[in-house]
Every structure is written in structure tokens, then in C-alpha cells.
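request received
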Amino acid sequence: MTRPIPPATVERLPLYLRCLEDLAPDREQISSRDLAALAHVTAAKVRKDLACLGTYGVRGKGYAVQRLRFEIRFALGLTREWGVVVVGAGNLGRALAGYAGFPGSGFAVVGLFDADPGVVGTPVGGLTVEPVDRLPDVAGDEGAAIGVIATPASSAQEAADRLVAAGICSILNFAPTLISVPEGVEVRPVDLSSELRVLSFHLHRSASDGAPSRGQPCDDPSSSSDS
Amino acid sequence: MTRPIPPATVERLPLYLRCLEDLAPDREQISSRDLAALAHVTAAKVRKDLACLGTYGVRGKGYAVQRLRFEIRFALGLTREWGVVVVGAGNLGRALAGYAGFPGSGFAVVGLFDADPGVVGTPVGGLTVEPVDRLPDVAGDEGAAIGVIATPASSAQEAADRLVAAGICSILNFAPTLISVPEGVEVRPVDLSSELRVLSFHLHRSASDGAPSRGQPCDDPSSSSDS
DNA sequence: ACATGTGAAGCGCTTCACAGCG
DNA sequence: CGCTGTGAAGCGCTTCACATGT
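response:
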């Protein structure tokens, strides 16, 4: 039951959870097919993924929504709250600080830091921007477990070093650069520019395949796809 | 040479390109091993990926940096500039508008929209926030090809519908919800809350495996990993 | 009859190992 | 000799099909 969950499944569990959370409150059961439609995946995938949790659905009926929500939260470690610190208090950092810590999310932003003295002291949501030097203190006192890097690329490695030094070993990196960290520290890059470039690839490709137009090979306001 | 490039390779090309762009200007050659170290991947992967481009390296020497940069840009469709419109002018939207359109990126933000009349008219960078109703006009006039959704989840589907109606078929969705679009429209979700939840999974897991501490199983300030 | 759980087949990506070329 | 380009093996994920259970 607590067999190693495949990475691909771990990446989808948050998706299922969000679909389940958005469900009507009176919905008690859901089939793999219906959940698959909501999550934009296949039903077989849903069943295989959920089977990893040791959560048993009911044959002929489906899964108990409430139970399923709990099982996924449990598997993801969302039965407790994790402290998050954000480094970089520009627009992005401020957006992420508000975005991440909403009540009930399982995450609480406990610190927002910036290297620029001109920004330090600014109130953001319920927090005040602090100097990066205070990172170790805050992270330690508040028991922060996750760090978010929202600095320019040029400061990202330094931010990562500070986070690691403060005992944080899970990092979300929004800066458009790779960072190096000691073994045992997990970094997940989130990169706008790379995403745009991948979109560019597909635009470029479909522009070449037939349609000679300027990059809008779709003129088909047809079916709103799945459900 | 223009054989279908595997999706996994497409996702890595922007990474290689960024590494090449960050290289010292006088660097003329680079081996697959060195590029692999910079990109945090394996050398075999680099060679297989680059072979897809029909870009030939020089045996015994490596790849010509300049040439390689051009080939990757070409493959990604970055030899021209793509117009980008951003829907949602909160902190996130403003951050993305500045982030995406910097000169030389291959992208130009041509419009920033918001449904809130209180925000419309605000200057952001070189742009002014416009009402969403103007989206079709601006997207048409400026030839925008990519849309970025930076609205709350509750408005994301509507934003997507407006983008599609305006003829845009490549969407980057930063809202924490799935959106449905007609076939032929590509959507890439970028989701902070899911990323945090995946990090939570790993924290949770390593906290269970041995270390009884509060979620910081790493106390190992050892090697700064690879190269 | 309906929907889950699961072996097995299918498929793509990664890794290996080395031939080939500069 | 060094490094690329590439078949082949290895591995994981997805899909299929159906036995199983209600």
C-alpha cells in the first residue's frame, strides 16, 4: 500500500485533488471516468494512479469523494501545514506570497525577503518585507520547509545558497536560471521563458505545416472539447 | 532533418539554449559533456537531442556555440518575434508582462488586459492596462499569437474563451484551474499550488523515512552537486 | 449491468556501448 | 586520442482488456 508511488503519478495527484475540491459539496461518489474527464486524462490512468494509494474504490459505484480527498491529501503530506519563505519581493514574489498562502491550502507564507533595502519594510498582505539576512532566523523560528525563489536570475544562486544554509531542502525556482544545490535538496524549476519557447515551437511547426498565415493556423471555433 | 522532434527533446531545447546564451562570449566550442553539466542532464541526452536538429557537431571537438544557438532558435521558431497578450493585471500579470517581453527574448507583450475597471488605465512598463473587451482588436492588430492567463481561477475559463475567440491558439495558464479549449489550441498549465504539493509529497516522504525531525531531513552542507 | 483493480502488451524515453570521424 | 552519432538494450509509463466484485 505504501509502495513507492511513481513520479508521474505524484505529479497528477494534485490535479485530482483540485478536481475533487472543486466538486459540488453534495457529490458523494465519482467514477474514474468522470474524474478523468474533469482532470483531462484517461480513466485507466486515474484508476492506476488511485490504486497506488491503497485507496479502494467500490466496484460498480466509484470512489467516495470525501475519502478520496483525504487519501490524496494524506499521500501528499497535506495533513499538516508547511511553512514557506519567499525570496524576492518584486511583483512576482508578492504575487506568489499571496497566491501560495491562502487559508486551507496547506501552506503558510511565513517570510518574504528582499536584498534591496528600498523594498524592505514594505507591507505585503499580512507580512512585511524583511532583509535576506533575517532568512535563517525566520526560517528557523517558524520552521519553514519550503523556499520560493522569485529573484532575478543574477541573484537566484545566492538565494538558493541562503535557503539551503537556513536548512530548507525544498525549493521552487521561478528565476530563469538553473541553480546548483547539495544532494538531498529538491529543486523544481518553473520557467516562463522556457514555456513560451515551447509554445513557440508548436506555433512555428503548425505554421509550417500548411497554413501560410502569420501564426494562427486555427480558425476553428468548433467543439469546446471534452466535457 | 526535420523529422518530428520528440516532445521530451522540445522541452529541453530551451534549457540548452539558455545555457548557451549564458556562455562566455568568447567561447567557440562546447562538448556534449560540458553542455550536459551546465544543463544538469546527461551527455548522451544532449547528443541525442541535438542530433534531432540535424545540427552536426564536430567529432573530436564538440559543437560550434554560435551555430548551435542559431539551430536551436530556428528549431524553436525563435527567428521571428511572437506577440503576447496577458489577461489579468494583478501582481502576477504585471510580473509576467515585464518578465516575458524583455528585448531579445523573441517575445513582445503587446497587450495587458483586466476585467476590473478600477485597474484599467494603469500604466505597467511601457503598456497601459486595457479592458478585456479590447482583446480582439489588439490581438488582431498586433498579430498576437500567444495568450497568458494570469487571472483568478474563477475567471480563467472566460479569459481562455476570449483568447480563443480572438484567434489565439497558444495559451499559458497560470490560474490554478484547468481550462477547456477547442481542438488545435495548445494550453500549457503552470501551477504553483500543484508544484508546492509535489514538494510536500517529497518532504512528507523523507520525513517518514528515518529522520524524525520536522521536515528537514537534510543537514548535509556537502558537495554543491554537479560541476 | 457497472465500475474497479490488474496483468500484459505497447510505446517512448533514457542509458549504454561503440563504431566512425576529425 | 577525443568526441560525436547511433543502434540496441533497459526502463517506466500508458493503454488495453478482462477477471473480479457489488
